[in-house]
Amino acid sequence: xxxxxxxxxxxxxxxxxxxxxxxxxxxxxxxxxxxxxxxxxxxxxxxxxxxxxxxxxxxxxxxxxxxxxxxxxxxxxxxxxxxxxxxxxxxxxxxxxxxxxxxxxxxxxxxxxxxxxxxxxxxxxxxxxxxxxxxxxxxxxxxxxxxxxxxxxxxxxxxxxxxxxxxxxxxxxxxxxxxxxxxxxxxxxxxxxxxxxxxxxxxxxxxxxxxxxxxxxxxxxxxxxxxxxxxxxxxxxxxxxxxxxxxxxxxxxxxxxxxxxxxxxxxxxxxxxxxxxxxxxxxxxxxxxxxxxxxxxxxxxxxxxxxxxxxxxxxxxxxxxxxxxxxxxxxxxxxxxxxxxxxxxxxxxxxxxxxxxxxxxxxxxxxxxxxxxxxxxxxxxxxxxxxxxxxxxxxxxxxxxxxxxxxxxxxxxxxxxxxxxxxxxxxxxxxxxxxxxxxxxxxxxxxxxxxxxxxxxxxxxxxxxxxxxxxxxxxxxxxxxxxxxxxxxxxxxxxxxxxxxxxxxxxxxxxxxxxxxxxxxxxxxxxxxxxxxxxxxxxxxxxxxxxxxxxxxxxxxxxxxxxxxxxxxxxxxxxxxxxxxxxxxxxxxxxxxxxxxxxxxxxxxxxxxxxxxxxxxxxxxxxxxxxxxxxxxxxxxxxxx
Length: 641
What we know:
By secondary structure, the chain is α+β, with helices and mostly antiparallel strands. The chain is about 45% helix and about 15% strand. It has 24 helices and 17 strands. The model has no long low-confidence stretch (mean pLDDT about 85).
């Protein structure tokens, strides 16, 4: 129940956001729902005058379809043929009194009868709102479809019956395909209608955006709630409910987190005679907790193939996401002023300064909320109707930030695949995002199931300091060791991310460690020298792979044998370099002398060879850039003289 309690507390801490419209992905609007309200995608908007007369109607565009509507316990969980109307906005079969006259099929109880009785009770209650009374007066006339057909919002055939689906045979009646068929997935009688009130004298707030109308229904419906019981979340005695919200991930989501309506199955049979004996949750807590969850998901949740990854604070919803990379969390920490190529010590000092700044900025940003907690939640559904909490963690915010800093200072390497706001590639030093780790391990075409599974498995590594799962690291090493099977950009990204994963345990730096005598690290250095040597003799536009790259996969499995082949292939390139080849040959000799005789064998290399390869290549390219810069400066001075 702790996750429900924290969601409930989050709702109470953000009451100023209730009903306030925000924009999320694709500019779609959302809000923190009031109690006793839900959302529904509407297809038709009908405007009623204040006198209760029809004014106009229009088909709603898909990007404006989401509508905040009043909802009862029964209507929020209705399914199948159950007649349970929403209090105001609903499907055509509920809100149209002339539904049967236009060919509408009703199996048992008439939906409109149940709908108009509920609307009448609200319109005649002490809490009634003038807009509700106007809408009720109009709908009581039972002529909604007649008016919509007259305005050509709905379409009928020659017999005056609603057309089921659009067909070319109706082109004689309607030369152009009616707009309603462009927004409906089913038949016309499944259209959802929302109502608002029009005034020629003053500008009125849309009904579904009117806070006064929210309050009107909340006060009206609060008097109709069931009997009181002990709420297992708050410990207070409050009106209880056994019908809980759906539409958690989106307006079409039918899965519920709490459900106990299966007395013939195994939901609670054999242990309890009634569902309330297992757990009792109050209506208020259920509504506020589920509404807070929906709001947080739309606001900041990540959804991968319907699996939700969510991080929030009770008193402050925005928090750094553990699945993001260092650049996303703090570009300043990820991009120190310089990346020293000289020694490990100088590189370590620069990184330590960057991480100190990262921690200080995080601490400063959230300093007023350290008494609050942070919540990490993962949700997913195996079936259409049931959703489960796969992972939940509540921890002190200060501890959470410390864990993030530790992750972003240990699982680190130098990356060059990120873009800044101007769309330019930038290099950053830090931890990769968990989604990028998934692509490094399984490839950019990896399915969403693999990605969401890996993102979940990486959370304990970030939050608890667990070791990175061996299969993930091994898969990334295998892909990084096979560059000829990948595009160059894909391989470079995979290489740097794999180095970060390996470095989580090894704690090396990008700066070359010339004193390191680990055989895998030394073999990696040899491979890098051979790669840079051959690359330096090729034309800039020549994109073919070097021999070192071509044999990299074999080199990782049989280093001694593969190195003999690579070394023999270097001679033509050494000859082409002439005197410039001396620094490469000296470097190869220097590295070779660091091997113990028994280590120069065909035993497979560990992932540390990738660290050696990357650091040696980085060092050589850094020195080359410095030499070119010095040469250019000298040429400029000579021309100036």
